[in-house]
Amino acid sequence: MATADLRLAITAGDTNLDAVALDAGDRIVARVKMPRGRDAEGDLHAAVRHITRDGEVRAARISRALLGSHAPLEAVVARRDLCRTAVVRIGAPLTAAVPPLSTWPADLREAVSAGEAIIGGGARFDGDAGAPLDTDALAAFLAGIAGDAQTVAVASVFSPVAPEHELAAADVVRRELGAAIPISLSHEIGSLGLLDRENATVLNAALVGVAAQLAAVLRRALERHRIDAELFFGQNDGTVMALEPALRFPVLMIGSGPASAMRGAAWLSGVTAGVVVDIGGARADVGILVNGFPREAPAPIRVAGVRTSFRTPDVISLPFGGGTVVAPGTMIAGSVLGEQALVFGGETATLIDAAVAAGRVVLGSRALTLRQRRTLAGALAPVDAQLADAVDRIKRAPHDVALVAVGGASGLVPSDLPGVDEVIVPGDGDVAGAVGLAIAPAGGQADRIFRNRPADRDHAIAAAREEALARAIHAGADPDRVEVVAVNEVPLAYMHDPAIRIRVKAAGPRI
Amino acid sequence: MTTERLRIDAAALPALAVGCAAVGAGGGGDPDLALTMALLAVGEHGAVPVVDVDDLDDEALVMPCGMLGAPTIADERVWSGGEGRTLRDMVERLHGRRVQALMPLQIAGADGVLPVTWAARLGLPLADADGRGRAFPGLHQHTMHLGGVAAGPVVLTDGRGDTIVIHLDDESRADRLSRAAAGSLGGVCAAALYCMAGARARSAAIRGSVTRALAIGRTIVGAEAEGRLAAVVAALGAKVIIQGTVVDVERAGGGLPRGAATVQSPGRDRRRRVRVELQNEYLLALEDGAPCAMVPDLVSLLAADTGVPVLTERLAYGQRVTVVASPAPDVWRSETALALVGPGAFGYDLDYTSVSDGASGGDR
After folding, report:
1. A21, A64, A120, B179 — which has fewest CB within 10 A?
2. Which of residues 67-126 of A touch B (CB under 8 A)?
3. Per CATH, which fold does A6-75+211-266 belong to?
C-alpha cells in the first residue's frame, strides 16, 4: 500500500478552478484547469474527480488538501452569508468622534452590525493603562444584543502594544453570551490605526460563518472521494494556515489569490526577486516578489467600500485578459470564455487571438485568426503600453528586473518590455496559483510598538519574534524548521521620546 | 468682504483637507482622520461659518488650536471630539472673556481640519486665518510670536478630561514644557495657545488661510486629469523644480522624521537629480549641491497622477512626483522672521533666497 504522500491544492478564482497534486518531492503528478460552475461543492467535487481519475493519484495517497478561496471576498462584496456582529470598542471617552462602523457603506453596516458600543478602557502608546476597563458597561451592552449577535468583535485603543483589555473583555463576553460565541480581537488581526484595525476585526467576525461553510464544503467534497486529508487555507501573504486558525481569522484569506499565484510563479521559475504578471481571462494582476514572497501593499486598503489595514499583496490590476474582446477602435468591449476565441474555432476576436496572430504564443489554430487580421493587428500595442507602465510603477527600482508571466493568458506578455531584462514563462504557469498553495509554508506575523530605549528594544524584538513564530506554528508550521523571514522597524513621527513599531514575519514548512 | 459668508459643509470638507495637505510642505500630518471626524461633526451639528478677521470684534477672544505631539498616535487613540469644548472652557476661565472664534494654529495637514470638528460641536465660527501659512515643528514658529502675542497660558487636554495649563514665566520655555506635557498626556494632545483679541489677530495672524486652502483643494479635486498639475501649480503660486521618480529615500533614526529624497527626471533628461531634505517638512531642494528652494518657502511633492501632495511620512521609493516650490507668506521673509524659520533655524548654513527671486526652473 502506498503511503499518504501527496498534497492536493485547489484555487477557486473568479472564473476558473485550478487544481494540482504534488508528491513529497514537489513533483506535479496531476493537474487540471476548469471553468467554475454554479456551486462551490460541485466545483470542488469535479476538480477532485479529475485529479484522482489519473491512476497515479489514488485518494488514499492524499494527506493534505489546501484551498485558496475567493468566497470570503465575494461574501463581503455581495453582503451575503455574513454573521451578525456585536462591535465593542474600548477607549471611551476617547474615539467617540468617530463611532464604530460610521464610515461603512450603509447596506454593509446594516447587514453586519448587531449593535455597537464604546466603553471605557484602553492603553497608552507606552502600554500603560489609559483608563480601567468598564466591565459593567460591557455587560450591559452584551445583555442588549444577546439575541441578535452571532459573533463579537473587540477593538481596544493601543491593543497592539497592550492587549490586556481585549483579553479581559473576551472573558466578559464568554461569561455573558456563552463560551461558544466566536470572538475576534483586534490585536490578533491588525496593526496601529484603531479605525482601520477595528474595521478588519469586524469584517473578520462577520466572515466566521463563511469560513465554517467553506471548510464544510471542502470536507464533504473530499469525503465523497474517501479522502481523509488535513485542511489548509491560503492567506494573503502567500503562506497557508491550518483549519483552526482559518476558522478564527477568515479575513486573512482575502487577497490569497494573487498571493499564491505570485508564490507559484516564484517557485516554478526559480525567481525570488522580480515582477510577476498573472493574466487570466478578464484581468491581469501585476505584483512584485521580495525574497520569494509578494510585497505587501501600503495601508490603507479598501475592501468592498470599507477602509482597512490588514496585510495584502501589492498588486496593480489591469482590466484585460486573454478573453478580452478586440473590436476596431476600442480595446475593451467585455470578455468571453476561451472557447469563443477565434483560435479555438469561435467567432469572437480576443486578445489571445491577437497574441497568437502576432506569434507571441502557439495556441489553437493560428490560421483561424487570419480573417480578422486587421482587427487584431493593433490590439496588442495598448496592452504592451499598460503592462510596461504597471511594471514600471510596481518595481520601484531604477535597474532592470526579471518578469515572470503566469496565468491562462500569460502568452499576451511580450518578450521585450522596458525595464525588464528577461521574460520567463514557466511550464505549468497556467495553474501557478494552485502550485503556489501546494508549496506554501505556514506563516504568522506579529506587530509591536516599544519605546526606543536599548533594553526595551531588545525585549520588544524578542517578544515580537516569539509571537510571530508562535503564530506560524499555530498556522501549521513545523516547530523545528520555522524561522523569522522579515523584521521591520519604523519610528513613530513627531516624538521627542520616540517609539518604534516593529513587525516580524515568520514562516516554516508545514509539519 | 463682510457680505460673502463662507461655510464649511460636507461638500467643502474633502477639498479643504486636500488643500491643507497641499500647503503643509509635506508636514502637519495626514488629514484623513480629521476629515472623517469633521464630516460626522458637520453632519450632526451643521456647517461651520468662516469669518474674516476684519469681522471679529476688537475685544473678541480668538482661540488658536490644534494638535501637539505625534499624529500617528492620534490615528490610534482617535479624538473624543470634546477636546475643543474642554479647551474653550479653560481658555474662557483663564482670560475671563468669551471665545468668539476658533482658529487653526497652522493650516497645514490634519491641523487645518481638526478645528472644524471642534467649531461645529461648539457652534462657533472659524477665523479665516492661521499662525503659519504652512507647517513648522517649533512652538515659537508662529506669526503670533513675531507679533508679540504670548504663547501662554498654554492649555492642553488629552480628550479623557485631563487638562494641563502651563503658565509661563519665560516664553522661551514654552516649547520644551509643552512637549513634555504632551508626552505625559499620552503622546498627543489638543492644544490652545497664543489666544488673542480680534484686533490683535488682524495683525498677528496670516489672513485668508482657510479660504486659500479650500481654493487650492478645490483645484486639486476638481481639475480635469489633463492640465491638473498646471492648475495646482498655479493655485499654489509655485514653480516646478523637477518632475520625476523618487529614486532614493534616506531616513535618519530617532523620532523626528529626518532624511532626504532624491528625485530623478526620466528619459533623455535622466541625469537631472534633485535632492529634497526633510525634517517633518520638506525644507530644502538642491540640484548639484546648489539650493533651488529653501525654507521658509514651501517645498512640496505632488503625486504625478493626481496632484495630491505627498506627505513626508508617506514618501516612498518609486513614487512619481513633481517637486514644486512656492514663496512663503511675506511675514516670514523679514530678517527677524528668518532668524526664527529660515534655513539657519534648521541647521543649514545658507542665506535665504526666495524662490520668487530665482531665475531657474519653470513658470511662476
Report:
1. B179
2. 91-99, 102-103, 122, 124-126
3. Nucleotidyltransferase; domain 5 (3.30.420)
